[in-house]
Amino acid sequence: MGDACEFGGLRIETGLDTNGDGSLVGDEINSTHYICNPFLEPPPLL
């Protein structure tokens, strides 16, 4: 994730797959959103 998520997470890219190859690349990507992990380690269980 680099600079977007210090402790890792998910990158979600959205757009139209204009060439129909099943993945978004280059100009097909209209938007990118990140869901970041809040901690390096999971919080303790109570």
Describe the structure.
This protein is mostly beta strands and 46 residues long. The protein has one domain. It contains no helices and two strands. The protein has a two-stranded antiparallel sheet with strand order 1-2. The mean pLDDT is 88.
Query: What is the spatial order of strands in the main beta sheet?
Result: 1-2
Mean pLDDT: 88
**Low-pLDDT segments:** none
Backbone shape: elongated
Roughly how many Å apart are the termini?
Answer: 30 Å
H-E order: EE
Helix and strand composition category? mainly beta
Observed structural traits:
46 residues; mainly beta; 33% strand; 2 strands; elongated; two-stranded antiparallel ribbon
Offer a quick outline of the entry.
The protein is mostly beta strands and 46 residues long. It is built from no helices and 2 strands. The chain has one domain.
